[in-house]
Amino acid sequence: QVQVVESGGGLVQAGGSLRLSCATSKRTASHHDMGWFRQASGNERPFVAVISQSGITTHYADSVRGRFTISRDNANGTVFLQMNSLKPDDTGLYYCNTRTRDFPWGQGTQVTVSL
């Protein structure tokens, strides 16, 4: 079974930056379109950003476009999310998964943005 491990979250002031990382067992992520998802409240996890398997195509939620950048390293099966100009509304638990959410969910990494 695929294991997903997210890291890089933390507490940051508004305007600051964080870089999230996602590692998958046996570099499984290398074979899939991947995405980052945010759980702010309740059980919903809407997408934040997605990237094609090749890394050529990316797509962002309107709320983060221009501030966040998704990237990947297929040699290591790793996916990244560079988060700049952070806002309090970006606060949440961030998860990594395939674009169609096929992997078991990891533990996520908490991002908290203070005023």
Helix and strand topology:
Blueprint: E1 4-7, E2 10-13, E3 18-24, E4 34-39, E5 47-51, E6 58-60, E7 68-73, E8 78-83, E9 92-98, E10 109-114
Parallel strand pairs: 2-10
Antiparallel strand pairs: 1-3, 3-8, 4-5, 4-9, 5-6, 7-8, 9-10
- Give the number of DSSP strands: 10
Largest β-sheet summary: 6 strands, mixed
Put simply, the count of helices is: 0
Q: Could you name the ranges where pLDDT drops below 50 across 5 or more consecutive residues?
A: none
Shape: globular
Task: Characterise the protein shown here.
With 115 residues, the protein is mainly β. The chain has no helices and ten strands. The strands form two sheets. The protein has a six-stranded mixed beta sheet with strand order 2-10-9-4-5-6, with no helix packed on it.
